UniProtKB/TrEMBL annotation:
<dbReference type="Pfam" id="PF02837">
    <property type="entry name" value="Glyco_hydro_2_N"/>
</dbReference>
<comment type="similarity">
    <text>Belongs to the glycosyl hydrolase 2 family.</text>
</comment>
<dbReference type="InterPro" id="IPR013783">
    <property type="entry name" value="Ig-like_fold"/>
</dbReference>
<keyword id="KW-0378">Hydrolase</keyword>
<feature type="domain" description="Glycosyl hydrolases family 2 sugar binding">
    <location>
        <begin position="108"/>
        <end position="226"/>
    </location>
</feature>
<dbReference type="InterPro" id="IPR008979">
    <property type="entry name" value="Galactose-bd-like_sf"/>
</dbReference>
<protein>
    <submittedName>
        <fullName>Glycoside hydrolase family 2 protein</fullName>
    </submittedName>
</protein>
<dbReference type="InterPro" id="IPR017853">
    <property type="entry name" value="GH"/>
</dbReference>
<dbReference type="InterPro" id="IPR006104">
    <property type="entry name" value="Glyco_hydro_2_N"/>
</dbReference>
<dbReference type="Pfam" id="PF00703">
    <property type="entry name" value="Glyco_hydro_2"/>
</dbReference>
<dbReference type="InterPro" id="IPR051913">
    <property type="entry name" value="GH2_Domain-Containing"/>
</dbReference>
<dbReference type="GO" id="GO:0005975">
    <property type="term" value="P:carbohydrate metabolic process"/>
</dbReference>
<dbReference type="GO" id="GO:0004553">
    <property type="term" value="F:hydrolase activity, hydrolyzing O-glycosyl compounds"/>
</dbReference>
<feature type="domain" description="Glycoside hydrolase family 2 immunoglobulin-like beta-sandwich">
    <location>
        <begin position="242"/>
        <end position="324"/>
    </location>
</feature>
<keyword id="KW-0326">Glycosidase</keyword>
<dbReference type="InterPro" id="IPR036156">
    <property type="entry name" value="Beta-gal/glucu_dom_sf"/>
</dbReference>
<dbReference type="InterPro" id="IPR006102">
    <property type="entry name" value="Ig-like_GH2"/>
</dbReference>
Length: 676
């Protein structure tokens, strides 16, 4: 294959761009369709800077899958499809009721993406569409948004029904008193998205993308839907954490938050409909129970899941869970990551979750699951979902396919937040954790990535105990992944379960050597390589993100190899270093950068369009298996009777791994005073 180097690639892009520079979004050129009147506007795909095999999506019902697999009802309607769109002014309150807007957009795709049909950075917009309620909706009606970036105000039939702040979490409104059961309903949504022009959780989104920072995502980027609910009380959230010993912690929230109505939970036979266990509790308060059957446990090797139903009054919601217990244990004097009583070596990629045609929005469920299946087939048992939150269906796919997830909190921009910004970050962190802790595949939550938006006063000292209380022993916490472990550096406080090192390209996993801004290996926590590798390989213009700025930044990659032979040699060399460190030192896992190329980064297993696999698959499978074999041999003795360091599965003893909450707060306050 003839591989083109940067200078040739830049020339090819310049030729395609013709007389205009490429826009800072997902469109290949600045050309956009224009119409003589709003009524004549139509949806049309904007040619993206790089296509995938899934780029062409149906406009009638894209993403037709039910969006909330852990709280499912049968009677629902997707509102995905072509909506009207129009640019707005900041804080615009003049809602365009009864007016045809001048553009068309395909929901649910980021405004900046080619698939959306807009491919523009628009900070303020109006969305509009009409819909009819199905005749089968014989009760109340709830309107759901799976994710809108960033601030949204929602109107139905001329009435403001609510607003929301945050680009990564789902929200809903009960519209029973506003919706029309007979005739058309007008839904209007105002969206404001500052991206990184404000200090808000953005992950890797940037108004001005540059190498490791990518094109932003604005607007409605996940599914919009309505569903029928009972006219009275109904279930609004299900938190259920099932441990390997059959003990279960549950909280069932309802539309009447102060009620204590009876809740009935029924577990079903795997792959069947027969009820095998029934219990009861009270709504809107935690309750515990132990199932009377021996559960088949969830793990990457055997991702066993159990369906169950939740009944409150006349409402019946469907959900699922997996029984598993994750712990931090001391084994032969070393802290280990333990799943269902067995030490596990976690290995997999840093996964950005970006797409050249949809950006934050995967083109389809099939496309999204392709990435997970690819990694699983290569022998990996783990994914670090990097400072982005995916649709709930992503976590369902990980649960069913069997792959461990480490879920990051989307980071703030690279500036220190003020008091209000820090408070909002923590509010959204709490929401992210509480809305994802029931997914069996998520075994760890990450608070901070490499100090991005992290105060040097160590707020993680205060945050971690609160999260441990919420998790009740069901997940571990990686408080500071990579760099700037201020609590350890300044107060000798080990916050969280992991000592997480980042180093490129060679790892430093649980080793007696390290490089700044990581710190010396802390033996009181799990030794873990949170990022390493990042070896890049040159590719042809056919598979590059066709943006001149992104291509010019390719040589910022940690290492660029001329061809696949060289890349496989170099990448597998650093994998072997990880294996050697596992054998010699205290390494418990590693995160290789990364699943795919992304915009100006060319260090993926796959090209950005998922069309070219860089790996010599058989060599990689053997190298990955060697990691597991080496780790298993090292921990073969001493797994019995090991001391459990984390909280119990039932939540007793929940506290920060370092110090009690009040002491942590006091020390944090002292540190703030010192730094001021």
């Amino acid at each position: 294959m003839n591989r083109l180097f940067t200078a040739f690639a830049l020339g090819a892009v310049a030729a395609q761009a013709q007389t205009k520079p490429l826009p800072k979004n997902g469109g290949l050129t600045d050309e956009r369709p224009t119409y003589s009147s709003p009524a004549e506007a139509q949806y049309k795909l904007v040619e993206p800077k790089l296509r995938t095999r899934w780029t062409e999506q149906p406009t009638e019902n894209p993403w037709p899958e039910y969006p909330r697999p852990q709280l499912k009802r049968d009677n629902w309607l997707s509102l995905n499809g072509v909506w009207e769109l129009q640019e707005a002014k900041a804080n615009d309150t003049d809602a365009p009721f009864g007016k045809t807007l001048n553009q068309r957009v395909l929901v649910p795709y980021c405004l900046e993406s080619g698939i959306s049909g807009v491919a523009l950075q628009l900070q303020n917009v109006w969305y509009r569409r009409e819909f009819e309620v199905p005749s089968s909706f014989d009760g109340g009606v709830v309107l759901h948004f799976a994710a809108v970036d960033y601030r949204s105000t929602v109107y139905l039939n001329g009435k403001e029904i609510g607003s929301h702040t945050g680009g990564y979490d789902k929200f809903h409104f009960d519209v029973s008193d506003v919706v029309k059961k007979d005739g058309k309903n007008e839904l209007v949504v105002f969206v404001n998205d500052p991206s990184d022009s404000e200090v808000v959780p953005v992950g890797k989104q940037r108004v001005e993308p540059s190498h490791i920072f990518y094109t932003p995502c604005s607007g409605i980027w996940q599914t919009v839907s309505i569903e029928s609910v009972p006219k009275g009380e109904y279930v609004t959230a299900i938190q259920l954490r099932a441990a390997a010993d059959g003990k279960v912690n549950a909280t069932i929230s309802t539309s009447t938050p102060d009620s204590s109505s009876s809740v009935t939970v029924k577990f079903l036979q795997p792959n069947g409909t027969d009820v095998i266990y029934t219990t009861q509790g009270k709504a809107n308060q935690p309750f515990q129970f132990s199932v009377d059957f021996q559960p088949e446990l969830w793990s990457p090797a055997s991702p066993n899941l159990y369906n169950f139903t939740v009944e409150v009054g006349s409402d019946v919601a469907q959900s699922y869970t997996g029984f598993r217990t994750v712990e931090r244990k001391e084994i032969d004097g070393v802290q280990r990551f333990v799943l269902n009583g067995k030490p596990i070596f976690q290995f997999g990629p840093l996964d950005q979750g970006y797409w050249p045609d949809g950006l934050h929005s995967p083109p389809s469920y099939e496309a999204m699951v392709f990435d997970i299946k690819y990694l699983k087939d290569l022998g990996m048992n783990f994914i670090r979902k990097h400072i982005k939150v995916e649709p709930d269906l992503y976590y369902y796919a990980a649960d069913t396919l069997g792959i461990i997830l480490m879920q990051d909190m989307p980071a703030l921009p690279l500036v220190a937040p003020n008091e209000a910004e820090q408070k909002e970050f923590e509010r959204q962190l709490d929401i992210m954790v509480n809305s994802h802790l029931s997914f069996p595949s998520i075994l760890t939550f990450v608070i901070y990535n490499e100090g991005w938006g992290q105060l040097d006063s160590s707020p993680e000292i205060q945050i971690a105990p609160r999260l441990y209380d919420a998790l009740a022993g069901h997940q571990l916490i990686n408080a500071v992944t990579g760099w700037n472990d201020y609590a350890k550096l300044r107060l000798n406080i080990s916050v969280g379960d992991y000592h997480d090192n980042h180093h490129y390209s060679s790892p430093q996993c649980g080793t007696p050597f390290y490089s700044r801004a990581s710190i010396q290996y802390d033996r009181s926590r799990i030794g873990f390589q949170g990022e390493f590798g990042g070896v890049g390989v040159n590719t042809t213009i056919d598979h590059l993100w066709k943006d001149d700025v992104a291509i010019a930044a390719i040589d910022n990659t940690y290492e660029i190899d001329e061809n696949l032979d060289a890349w496989n040699y170099r990448a597998l060399r650093v994998i072997e270093e990880l294996r050697e460190q596992t054998e010699r030192y205290d390494c418990n896992g590693g995160v290789y950068t990364q699943t795919t190329d992304v915009e100006g980064e060319v260090n993926g297993f796959l090209t950005y369009d998922r069309a070219v696999d860089h790996t010599d698959a058989e060599k990689w499978k053997a190298a990955i298996q060697a990691l597991y074999d080496t780790f298993n041999a090292k921990v073969a003795n001493g797994t019995e009777g090991a001391a459990i360091v984390n909280t119990n599965a039932d939540g007793t003893g929940a506290a920060m791994r370092a110090v009690p909450t009040m002491v942590a707060l006091l020390l944090s306050a002292i540190l703030v005073a010192v730094t001021l």
